Amino acid sequence: KFTSLFRSHIHQLKNKIQSVTKKGFTMTEYLTQIKEISDQLRLASSTIDDEDLVLLTLNGLPEEHDALKTTIRARVESITMDDLCSLLSSEEIHIENKAKIVVHDSPVAYATTKGSKNS
After folding, report:
1. Cα dihedral sign for 76, 80, 45, 57?
2. What is the DSSP string of 34-86?
3. Dihedral (Cα; 27, 61, 19, 79), 10-degree rounding
4. What is the pLDDT of residues 25-68, one digit of tens each?
């Protein structure tokens, strides 16, 4: 009975790691979820190799990361999970900064700024 429950738990963890998405989470929160589940699988003696973990992580990312996902998938040499985490954290900072620039340069922001200078 214990073996059956143990196997069931491993299946649940594998299903869970395949369905994790970044949606609504920061990159740090998303990567933490992936790490926690993979650590639980390792504790249960069911490892996921780094290459599969990288693919699962990329699959859970939204469209705004498509360029980076394509670049990583097109690489000749494989990437480690540690390197991927570093790249994704940098990418999140880049995307956040880009969003700030777009908001700052919007016509509404310009009109508000211009109007306040003339007052």
Report:
1. negative
2. HHHHHHHHHHTT----HHHHHHHHHHTS-GGGHHHHHHHHH-SS---HHHHHH
3. -90
4. 999 999 999 999 999 999 988 888 999 999 999 999 999 899 99
Model-wide pTM > 0.70: yes
CA 91 to chain CA centroid, Å, is: 10
Sign of CA dihedral 15, 56, 67, 103: positive
Cα–Cα distance, 64 to 95 (Å, whole number): 8
Give yes or no for a contact between 35 and 53, defined as CB atoms under 8 angstroms apart: no
